[in-house]
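Please discuss these two lines.
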Amino acid sequence: MESGRTHNEDDPNWVDDVLSRAIEESYENSPKFKPTEEDQATSTNVDSSKGQNTGDVKTVNISPYPDESPEFEPILNEKAGSEKKSNKSALEWLAVIVGALLVAFLIKTFLMQAYYIPSSSMTPTLQIGDRVLVNKLSYEFGDISRGDMIVFQKPNSGAGTKTDLIKRVIALEGEWIEIFDGQIFIKEAGETERKLLEEPYLADGVTTTGFVDFSKCEQSTETTCLIPDKHVFVLGDNRSGSRDSRYFGPVDEESVVGRAFIRIWPLGSLKLL
């Protein structure tokens, strides 16, 4: 116990007095806290009155306009990217459309073409409103055959007009065709005997009437016609409702557009011809 300090042992609080004085003396004699240089540098940047940094601490300026703030830049870039993608997609679609039109034009010009049947001249095989595909390359690599359904430009259709017809090939170049008693007989080139032409594509009871024009026959009689070179004789399947080679003579092969090979419309009647 330090000098100058006394205590009464009879006083019940003397222990508390002693402890209190000891704590006060220890606090007065303890070394003062000295902050490090790093702590000092930090403390100088802090405004104690406001609790905010006032030194070199970097601050972020937030613009009142969102598109001027740094956070908005990625959004702008994303939007620009979307516009570029949209422009690219538009160009790609345009290229696809132009390519498709070009392919369709080339196909129509050189390969095949769809035709609409406007009359009943080919019934029962083709009905009004049917649509068929015509192969334009069929006779570039092969010959016209009997029974083919061909599309050709009608002879004597008038100056400046082109009329496409579809008929069935009945006789070929160098053959004799005879129409007698409602039936057709064919004498092939180099043969001496004529043969009855069987026509399963005709409706029951159909007969064939005789010639009207013999002018394009190489030779002819009242009931016969010799087909010139590079020509074919064509008839409609509906014999009583068709204007064909009986009326305008054999057809020049140069005027043949192609061979109708499939009926594509109506969908339920899709059929190879």
